[in-house]
Design goal:
Layout lengths: L4 H35 L24 H5 L8 E6 L4 E9 L16 E4 L10 E6 L21 E6 L4 E13 H7 L13 E12 L4 E12 L2
Parallel strand pairs: 2-3, 4-7
Antiparallel strand pairs: 1-2, 1-5, 3-4, 5-6, 6-8, 7-8
Length: about 220
């Protein structure tokens, strides 16, 4: 039987189109695979990217009016300030643990979170506070936390207006695995018998695969006498 080219032209065109489409999809998948391999461990960009637009964080600036209207109980931490890092009265929000037993972080990247099972300012225990490194397009309150070093000062204002000043005695960057092993020490004072403050944030290189930073910054400070 003689093949009728003219009659089968539409089928041939559709076959070519489908093959071309499959080729494009394959090229995209191959490119994506090698792109993520290449970007694994690189610094996280501050501009919007596909992988970061799904992060459930709020980048809305916190105004002075927002801060002035923020009220907590008299014995609870209300504001945290670190002059060296340009942090001025960051709101301290009460936080607990997630269902996976991880320390929760405030939704807004400019707020910090106080673990409610840790100490309170002026009561002799160890207060644990965490905060964001950043969001999809803006840096967070604790972006520069690794810049703190021995002797730097951190102040916490309580709900009743009393201010407590803590002096940094330890600042270290740890891998995720190391941080998990040493998390318990963040609820203990670095100097026995002295009230202390512990700060935590994510830092280091960004893992596209794990969807997190690969390090944690631990800062420990003691109450000035």
């Amino acid at each position: 039987m003689k093949f009728n080219w003219r009659k089968n032209i539409p089928r041939i065109i559709w076959a070519i189109f489908i093959l071309a489409l499959l080729g494009c999809v394959a090229r995209i998948l191959i490119w994506e695979h090698f792109y993520y391999q290449e970007k694994e461990g690189s610094e996280r960009a501050t501009s919007v990217s596909v992988s970061e637009t799904t992060e459930d964080v709020d980048e809305t600036d916190v105004t002075d009016d927002d801060k002035n209207s923020y009220v907590v109980a008299a014995d609870r931490p209300r504001f945290l300030s670190i002059e060296k890092l340009g942090i001025d009265r960051a709101r301290v929000l009460p936080m607990g643990l997630s269902t996976s037993n991880q320390l929760q972080t405030p939704n807004n990247i400019f707020d910090v979170g106080w673990y409610t099972e840790s100490g309170k300012p002026g009561q002799g225990g160890t207060m644990l506070i965490d905060g964001h490194n950043g969001g999809p397009t803006k840096v967070g309150v604790f972006k520069n936390l690794p810049d703190l070093s021995f002797g730097d000062l951190i102040t916490v204002e309580r709900g009743d207006g009393q201010v407590f000043t803590y002096q940094v005695v330890e600042s270290e960057t740890l891998s995720i695995s190391e941080a998990n092993k040493q998390m318990s020490k963040m609820l203990q004072s670095p100097e026995e018998g002295r009230e202390s403050l512990s700060l935590i944030t994510c830092t280091g290189e960004w893992s596209q695969v794990q969807r997190t930073y690969l390090s944690r910054q631990f800062v420990r400070a003691v109450l000035q006498c």
